[in-house]
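Archive maintenance. Older records in this collection stored only the sequence; we are now back-filling the structure field for every entry so that each record is complete. The fields below show one back-filled record exactly as it appears after the update. Entries are processed alphabetically, and Cytochrome c oxidase accessory protein CcoG is next in the queue.

ARCHIVE ENTRY
Title: Cytochrome c oxidase accessory protein CcoG
Organism field: Microvirga thermotolerans
Length field: 481
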Amino acid sequence: MTTLDISFKPERAHLRRPKRGVIAERVVPQAVRGRYRRLKWTALTLCLAIYYILPFIRWDRGPDQPGQAVLFDMSRGRLYAFFIEIWPQEVYYLTGLLVLATLVLIWVNAVAGRVWCGYFCPQTVWTDLFLLVERLIEGDRRERLKKRGAPLTARRVAEIGMKHAIWILIAMATGGAFVLYFADAPTLLAELATGRASPLAYGWVVILTGTTYVLAGFAREQVCTWMCPWPRLQGAIWDPEALTVNYRDDRGEPRGSVKKATELRAKGEPAGDCVDCLQCVNVCPIGIDIREGPNFACINCGLCVDACDATMSRLGRPRGLIDYEAWANIERARRGEPARRRAVRPKTVGLALAILALAGLMGASLGLRQDAKVAVIHDRNPVAVRLSDGRTRNGYTVRLYNKAGSERAFALAVNGLEDASVEVVGDGATVSVASDATRELRVLVSASANERQPVAFVAKDLETGRAVTALDTFIPVEGGR
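Back-filled structure field:
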């Protein structure tokens, strides 16, 4: 079985890392047109539109509730996402979401390799945007390479200044949009523009402006190759049946010019379709040569496919010399065997079922959860107290959560003890809880039980009749926890 090599061992040249010189120098990719470049532009537009517009989408949650569709409300300790509201006590939903995202990422990797990295990763999206600005101002790859060592002129200084000014504006918009997810977007945007926002908001804008400017403007391929942990995982989860960008060397080798290939074929000697034009290398945003074999740094963006297809089209040769193809099929072609498509296989089916199961479980949990909750903590010192009439009293801290948008009244009762009496210190059996708030109560339960017994604290909504329950234990004086 073939695996990705993440070492510099020269004896495995077809699986080695990018050359040192390529990574050490800043890559200057060439513009390319084609189906996958159009897909990348579509993904870029979609991702940027979601990121910049989402904070301004409104969502009606009722009076005295935030009207922003997606909001990390730090003051209330809430996460709002349209009709979903996550409280701090429900952090397990965020954990489940992270696990679900990880499973989806692994499943996508099993089907199409690092396609997330090539199309939807924020580093890729903002790098593409910065490169677009650079090309529009300084020209394509050849022009930019010529200008690298050329003496500075007034025009060149103006180009550099304009490019960096636009980069900084984009980076500022990126940092500004990020903080809008943590407060009412229109209000905070006006405060940022007029200098009335908090120092914390300005601090985060500055931090994210700097990171965006540096990572998308200068680090680029170094982030995807050296800083991101995902490439390091490829050696463990890389799947030879996944549709990844590969070079069909059985068709392309031996390489040679069009003239040389024509002469070899006239003599009956083998000649490949690859003319060694290096367009696949020139357009690669990472600067690798996919013809050397699977490379852990390849982000599966498909730009080399577009470049190679364009060359093959000009030469009148069939497309697909470089294409999305399973590495297993590359090896089958070398042996003269037919290709097999195995998108549906135990690994992908198992991952898909796990994703559906987890998503269904989280959806059902969200759909069935109540907008009220009761939590109980038993006193630990003392655990129990003997009363003068011989009965035993246990103390509890009871917390009522009201997640609704209006004030609610709850009737508190204890089930499980035959002769229990309940006292809510400083309050009656009926307790009011403000909207979107919690209330902590001190509750004393007295009973004549002589052994441990489970008890249920029941808080019943007096308006709807629905009840929520929390279980704990009643402990006699002779017992202990």
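Update note: The two ends are 56 Å apart (CA to CA). The longest helix spans residues 154-179.
Entry marked complete.
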